[in-house]
Write a structure and sequence with these properties.
This protein is 65% helix and 0% strand. By secondary structure, it is mainly α. The chain has two domains: 76 residues, no CATH class; 153 residues, no CATH class. Helix 4 runs antiparallel to helix 5, helix 7 packs across helix 8 and helix 9 runs parallel beside helix 11.
Length: 240
């Protein structure tokens, strides 16, 4: 079976798996057409059957179909992603889920995550900045503290405190997630993150026609501390 046929067959499979009810929910959460409405668990099943599918992942993402783009993030081999490919993915991400999960997860595991995150945060583009903050949140959850630039990350907590209330809706959520991740996953940043969360206070944003709200960073960090979970890393940024 050629890579091209594999791609075509997967696209046909995705279309067949689409459900109108799932599509309706996704549209409410800011997902853009074209999309089929495939459940994430079905995408995960397809991913498990694919081996060494990095080139396939690039093609799936280029399709522009949301379900295929999300699947691409599961199929991709992050270590093979080049900075230019990450940039292309970030620029073509046209929904919150792709920016804050698919691209951010892959970037965090790629080895280029820190550099790209800083670039995106400083880009002046709200969507890229959102992806940058989300990438950092994922990066902190999987990277040993000894490999992190703690002064740089601490300075970014200060930036959150200064800018979060004047930022865009999804960027607020991503910045808040960064504070939570710093407080939970990086022991050296726990106190600074707690102080940042306290200084920021409640964060309000328009999450559209959904029940989603921005969680309290203070509460999240406190719960992790109560469970003695501070500093414990995840094995993967991606939810596979």
């Amino acid at each position: 079976m050629t890579a091209n046929n594999t791609y075509e067959e997967i696209m046909q499979q995705l279309q067949a798996l689409g459900e109108p009810s799932i599509k309706k929910v996704l549209l409410k959460h800011g997902i853009q057409e074209p999309l089929y409405g495939v459940k994430v668990e079905e995408l995960k099943k397809i991913n498990k059957k694919i081996k060494n599918g990095h080139e396939l992942a690039l093609k799936l993402y280029e399709s522009g179909v949301y379900d295929a783009m999300y699947l691409a993030g599961l199929v991709a081999q992050p270590a093979q992603m080049r900075p230019g490919e990450l940039q292309s993915w970030a620029e073509k991400a046209n929904s919150p889920a792709l920016r804050e999960y698919t691209v951010a997860w892959v970037a965090a595991e790629s080895g280029h995550g820190m550099a790209k995150a800083i670039e995106w945060i400083n880009s002046g583009d709200e969507h890229l900045a959102t992806t940058g903050w989300a990438t950092l949140a994922s990066l902190l959850s999987i990277t040993p503290d000894a490999e992190l630039n703690i002064p740089l990350l601490s300075g970014l907590l200060d930036k959150v405190a200064r800018d979060i209330h004047n930022s865009g809706n999804r960027e607020k959520l991503a910045m808040n997630s960064y504070v939570i991740s710093a407080g939970i996953y990086v022991s050296a940043l726990n106190e600074a993150a707690r102080l940042t969360a306290a200084a920021v206070g409640k964060v309000s944003a328009d999450m559209g026609d959904t029940a989603c709200k921005i969680p309290s960073a203070e509460d999240y960090i406190a719960k992790a501390e109560a469970k003695n979970a501070t500093g414990k890393k995840k094995k993967s940024a991606r939810c596979m």
